[in-house]
Amino acid sequence: MPKKSTSTGPFSITIDPGCYTGVYQVWEQNVAKLGAAAGMWTLRLEAGKYEILVAAGTISFSISATGAIQNVTPSNSAFLAPETKDHLIFGNSKIVIDPDVYDGTYYPAGNDGDTMIPLRGRKTIVVVPGLKWYVWVYGRYGGTQILFDVDARGRIVASSVTPTGSAVADGSRLLLQTTAIIVDPTDFTSGYILAGHYCEPSNGKLEFALIKALTCYIEFYGCGSTHEVVFEVDSNGAINPRSVSNRQAVTAVNLSVPGPSAKLVVNTQPVFVSTDFTGRYRIGSRYFQKAVSKPGKKGRKDRTPDLVMVKNFGTIISIIETATVDITPLQTGMSPAEALVQDADGGIQKFDFAYSG
Fold it and tell me: Is residue 3 part of a domain?
């Protein structure tokens, strides 16, 4: 008699995320990543053990020698479609992200890489029960992630929320914990961007809501550049002055309640343009269209400055029009009396700022 087949595949296996629209990854357990997808995915798998990575959690399953999906854990995270053995469906639930008065952006788990979609305001999102989840606040910077577990019933486990003080769980609702701070740019008028307001420059003294217990930042001169000052907001809403990454540029002052819990003060220095330059120039990136057209004049330090810039902080000055012909090339570096200049052809050159503070 012929022997009965003991095939180990490959078998057609379908992963069905249902109404979960985020990204997930499929791995052969302890071996290699097989790929990533959003939406339903049918792939060819041998008998063995596999994992599906969703957010910060993992769904484990095995495939038998006959091509049947078995041993799904956590048990409520996914289930077999009725009357099938090879179609795995996520056991989705819904939770609410409530940012309270914080009006900036946040990014729920599943939006990986360039597909990240920023959200604002109170939103309902789809999660997979039994897994660890996260929300990026401000963007994918270190210290801006809130982690939490979703139990088998689709409720947020209150004791799992980290960092402590950043949010509280109320059933299936995650309520972000906010604090008010003031940004005081003093006489700096070229605009700034506070975390969570990407490429949305603000001007003047304003009050903002931030999330407690997270690392935050403020940007000057550009959008998404390295021109930023990082600081930490603690679980009480205060800013640790020693956490400010550039304390010459920005000073943190904690205030007495009631009212805003802290203030960020921008420290500035006057800059006087040399007579060597007689054209027009612009401060920072295209998001900060501050053009200056008057020619520089050598003179006393007490005259009105041509520019007010953030102290101990580099930027790029873009030449718009120039009658200057003698500009010494400079590839790297900056001293207190110099700034980098980008000409119309994109070349980096040296430009002398006389009498900088």
Answer: no
Is residue 155 a part of any domain in this protein?
Answer: yes
Upper half-sphere CA count for residue 163 (Cβ side, 13 Å): 19
- In a 3-state reduction of DSSP, which class is residue 201? coil
Tracing tokens 């810039």 back to the chain, one arrives at 309
* Domain housing 142: 93-176
Phi and psi at 242, nearest 5°, equal: -75, -10
pLDDT digits (tens, 9 = 90+) for 123-134: 999 999 999 999
Task: Extract the tokens encoding 332.
Answer: 């790297």
Q: What is the pLDDT of residues 197-245, one digit of tens each?
A: 877 789 899 999 999 999 999 988 766 555 789 999 999 999 989 999 9
The DSSP-derived string for 267-323 is -EEEE---TT--SEEEESSTT--EEE-SPP----TTSPPSEEEETT---EEEEEE--
161 shares its domain with 226: no
In residues, how long is the chain? 357
Count of C-beta atoms within a 10 Å radius of residue 204: 11
CA distances from 273 to 24, 146, 290, 301, 305 (A): 54, 46, 15, 11, 8
Number of compact structural domains in the chain: 4
